[in-house]
Amino acid sequence: MRLAFVAFLAPLALAGQVSPSAAAPAKAGLEAAAPLLARVAEEADAMAHNIPRTLTLETLEQRSLRPPARFRPRAGAAATAPAVRSTVRQIVSEYSVGTFKETDPGDLHEFRQVIEVDGQPVQSEESARRALSLGMQSPSDRIRKRMLEQFAQHGLVDIATDYGLILLEFTRRGWENLQFGPSENARLGTYAAVVLGWKQLSAAGGELEFHGRRAVRQSLQGRLWMRKSDGLPLRVEAWAEVEDGGRSVRDQASVDYVMSPHGFLTPASVVHRHSVDKQLMTENLYRYAPFKMFSAEADIKFTEAPEPPPAPSKP
Question: Which residue segment(s) compose the domain that 212 sits in?
């Protein structure tokens, strides 16, 4: 399984691409955490198998800094730093996962149908679900790509997609493209955790950034949080950084996972931050409702998980 993280960023004149590491995978970190990583790989495989058959509601809240709408930069002494403005957007979408059947049938991507923008309805949930289902079943990639483009056109800047699927990088097959670092003990909420550093050896499965019409693929690195008692994945952190004409451009994300009622992990939230010269320009916060299973027919039929029986009352 290979992922293709996508970020639609404000235009920049990119100087180049970060070169992937040529070093061999570090064995020490992998051997020390091998029992925990085996559980991570198991959960990643289960997620890859099941999440394409799910649907949920995603809420994106974006906070960004932008120059004035009528700002026109001038050169020389006349140039002055424009006063930036802060904007907040909220996008609610029907969300599912699938592939581009024509171009990369082995890769999973996130797909959305927007139903609400800043509190204003765009379409009904029923219409969005039907459009999403038909788009996912279409043999043509054009419909899927159009859904991604439409999502980016709702007044958003510096958005990133596919980060919710980053756990799929940790299947056993995915280990071939990962270098693991030493582990450390930490806590995440009420859980004792083991945190393992990781780095992609190739940019092939890394983040694909669009700066205007320019596209650059970046290798990622980060930290994997596992529950110490049994290796259950709790959080994946990832970041990538590139130098652009003396400017440092950094994208970083933190993805928290929860066990769904259907017995496999799903993303609970994604926090993505885009910074330029250490100044935060955009923060994207994605939140997900509980995931539901649906059939392959155009008329989506959900399979609800049974409600747990009530706990017996104490005498």
Answer: 2-11+34-66+84-294
Strand duo 207-211 + 191-200: pairing: unpaired
Q: How many CB atoms lie within 10 A of CB 132?
A: 22
C-alpha distances in angstroms, 24 versus 175, 177, 197, 201, 292?
A: 12, 10, 15, 8, 41
pTM flag (> 0.85): no
Residues 6+ apart with CB under 8 A from 210: 6, 7, 8, 9
pLDDT in tens, 133-165: 777 766 666 766 677 777 777 778 877 788 999
In a domain, 276, yes or no: yes
Query: Which contacts (CB < 8 Å, 24+ apart) does range 265-270 have?
Result: 265/43, 265/46, 265/47, 265/167, 265/233, 266/47, 266/51, 266/54, 266/56, 266/291, 267/164, 267/165, 267/167, 270/163, 270/164
Beta strands in the chain (DSSP E): 2-3, 5-9, 54-66, 85-100, 104-117, 120-121, 159-161, 178-188, 191-200, 207-211, 214-218, 221-227, 233-244, 247-259, 265-276, 279-288, 292-294, 302-303
pLDDT band at 70 (very low <50, low <70, confident <90, very high): low
Write the pLDDT tens digit of every residue in 185-228.
Answer: 999 999 999 999 999 987 666 665 555 555 556 789 999 999 99
Q: Is residue 279 part of a domain?
A: yes
The total of structural domains in the chain comes to: 1
In a domain, 60, yes or no: yes
Confirm whether 100 is domain-assigned.
yes
Structure token pair of residue 229: 């008692």
